[in-house]
């Protein structure tokens, strides 16, 4: 089963965009997401409608962030993407009159609902700024580790 990775991909490119001094083209973003620029434009259009990004056409144009990373959560981006399905698990519908199928589906539906609510609640707690800080911490740790490795070669 193919998984929907748009949320992960969009978060990825938004963080890259946060580090850029100027606009980033759909072509450059498509390389980051390993997809077609048309797909990027379609995804980014939803983010633009919500005011998270802006775009300029023409030479020197492209996409730029138009939001404060500390005020935008994973949940905000998820909603801007059109609320893609969170769970790939479903339930049977082959025998809707079967009482066993009805009982199983009712229990599963409640469990799915509860799981989605918890996940969306967690998405609402994580801002893009928090994710950006994590990236910077990882980068600093990597640079520090490489500096130690370089230093170790001196002995």
From TrEMBL:
Any GO molecular function: DNA-binding transcription factor activity
Single GO cellular component term: cytosol
UniProt xrefs under PANTHER family: HTH-TYPE TRANSCRIPTIONAL REGULATOR YWGB-RELATED, WINGED HELIX-TURN-HELIX TRANSCRIPTIONAL REGULATOR, RRF2 FAMILY
TM stretches of this protein: none
Domain of life: Bacteria
InterPro entries hit by this protein: Tscrpt_reg_Rrf2 (IPR000944), WH-like_DNA-bd_sf (IPR036388), WH_DNA-bd_sf (IPR036390)
Alphabetized PROSITE patterns for the sequence: HTH_RRF2_2
Pfam families linked: Rrf2 (PF02082)
Name of the protein in its database record: Rrf2 family transcriptional regulator
């Amino acid at each position: 089963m193919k998984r929907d990775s748009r949320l992960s991909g969009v978060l990825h490119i938004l963080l890259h965009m946060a580090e850029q001094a100027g606009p980033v083209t759909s072509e450059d973003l498509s390389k980051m997401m390993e997809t077609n620029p048309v797909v990027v434009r379609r995804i980014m259009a939803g983010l633009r409608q919500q005011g998270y990004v802006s775009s300029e056409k023409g030479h020197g144009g492209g996409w730029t962030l138009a939001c404060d990373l500390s005020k935008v959560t994973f949940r905000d981006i998820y909603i801007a993407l059109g609320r893609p399905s969170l769970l790939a698990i479903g339930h049977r519908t082959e025998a809707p009159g079967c009482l066993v199928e009805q009982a199983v589906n009712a229990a599963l539906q409640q469990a799915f609902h509860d799981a989605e609510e918890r996940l969306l609640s967690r998405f609402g707690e994580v801002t893009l700024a928090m994710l950006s800080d994590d990236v910077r911490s990882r980068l600093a740790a990597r640079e520090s580790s490489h500096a130690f490795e370089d230093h170790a070669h001196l002995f």
